[in-house]
Amino acid sequence: MAFCKLLLTVLVLLHNSGGLLGNEVRSSIIGAEDAKKESWPWMVHLNMTSKDSKLEKWGCGGTVVAKQWVLTSAQCVANYDHLRSFVVVGAYQLQKAAHRYMGIANIVQYQHLGNSNKNDIALIKLKKPITFSKDVAPVALPDKDDTFGPSSECWITGWGEVGNGVPLKAPETLQQLKISIISQSTCKERLPQIASNTLCTNDSKGRGACKGDYGGPLVCRKGGKLVQVGVMSSGGCGPKDGPGVCTEVAKYLTFINDYIHRPGKAPAEM
Ligand SMILES: *[C@@H]1O[C@H](CO)[C@@H](O)[C@H](O)[C@H]1NC(C)=O
Ligand SMILES: *[C@@H]1O[C@H](CO)[C@@H](O)[C@H](O)[C@H]1NC(C)=O
To answer: Which range is the signal sequence, renumbered to this chain (predicted)?
Structure first.
């Protein structure tokens, strides 16, 4: 998750000089910060390896949506090797072993076309059901008519890069960032080709998702709880990268519910 180092330095200086800025202002600019433990129990890490001879490796985010299902982006699971790739649940610091590794049985993709934001959503079926606990629990999904916009309170979480090409430092503590949605018309001015069924996040401070965060959630407050409004798909990685783009979960509820609530429809294991 990226944040703008220049702004950070300037603000820390202002703050240290006993300026007018209170804690609240300071923390809202710093951007990504260490998550509170057990605040995001649906958060999973995908540790992926390609199925070709290059054995390329990449990380992604994802969310627990049911006992045996994880939601992520289609790009995260393209060309993956199901034996060498795995899902980590209950992780907080990736380099500490207090979490569980789950094998991948199969992947269901919505008709995702190539390297685009269009229908960038997929479900991972785990080999075994997850045992839920205080640090592993499913995320709530929105209702199909729910709308979220610039005034919603939203967050993204991930273990991705903290700047373009800069990995998260050991012990790789989950990062959280409060972020706002921008209107689709504002987003279109910046990204004219943006696919439908997407939501964009405000990048005005150079903050947002980076490599390794994609596939993870954008959650927003709905009444007293958080629901997963988006799956991070691209963008957001620093001042030059443009708005973050998420796949809008409310538009894919039929796809998701079809699989997670109807065992008969699940694909055979590989
Ligand atoms: C995936 O797991 C391997 C083995 O535990 C580790 O060396 C590697 O850094 C992980 N990769 C990612 C992207 O998390
Ligand atoms: C994005 O955030 C900046 C800084 O908080 C704010 O000034 C701007 O109005 C926001 N843009 C939109 C489109 O919400």
So the answer is: 1-22
Ligand 2 pocket residues where CB is under 6 Å: 150, 180, 182, 186, 202, 204
Residue ranges matching CATH 2.40.10.10 in the chain: 2-26+41-138+253-260, 154-250
> Which numbered atom of ligand 2 lies nearest the CA of 180?
14
Which residue's CA is the nearest one to ligand 2's atom 7?
204
pLDDT tens digit sequence for 219-265: 999 999 999 999 999 999 988 889 999 999 999 999 999 999 876 66
pTM confidence score: 0.88
Distance 202 CA to ligand 2 centre (A): 6
* Contact of 256 with 65, CB cutoff 8 Å: yes
Give domain 2-26+41-138+253-260's CATH architecture: Beta Barrel (2.40)
Distance CA 89, CA 57 (A): 19
The CATH class of the 154-250 domain is mainly beta
